[in-house]
Amino acid sequence: MEATAPPPPPSEAPRLTGRELDVLRLMCRSDCLLEKEMPVQLGMQLCTFKTHKESLYRKFGVHSRLQLLEKAMRLRVVGCHCCGQLPGREARP
User: Fold this and answer.
1) How far apart are CA 40 and CA 88, in angstroms?
2) CATH tag, 18-74
3) What share of the chain is helix, strand, coil (3-state, %, to 5)?
4) What's the rounded Cα separation, in Å, for the pair 71 and 69?
5) How far apart are CA 86 and CA 30, in angstroms?
6) Is the model's pLDDT at 23 over the cut of 60?
7) Where do the structural domains in the chain lie, given as residue ranges?
8) How confident is the model at residue 8 (pLDDT cuts 50, 70, 90)?
9) Other CB atoms within 10 A of residue 68 CB
């Protein structure tokens, strides 16, 4: 069993590979795509996509896509493609 790295401190963004960043950006801007459709956009296999996604979850210390996107935006790793808000959420005043 592999040892997993502890999640990063809340104020520090984890180091990401180029492909992890590609996956994260696609997840942020593709709220209407199914997970099985996302790898096609990146030219990769579904199992490769899932590996990158799980790596992102581990590096950010989260367990869901919503948590990942919230934390990535809070750490300013990504922003929403249109308004800076998470997909499916109303803008806060």
Assistant:
1) 23
2) 1.10.10
3) 45, 0, 55
4) 5
5) 11
6) yes
7) 18-74
8) low
9) 23
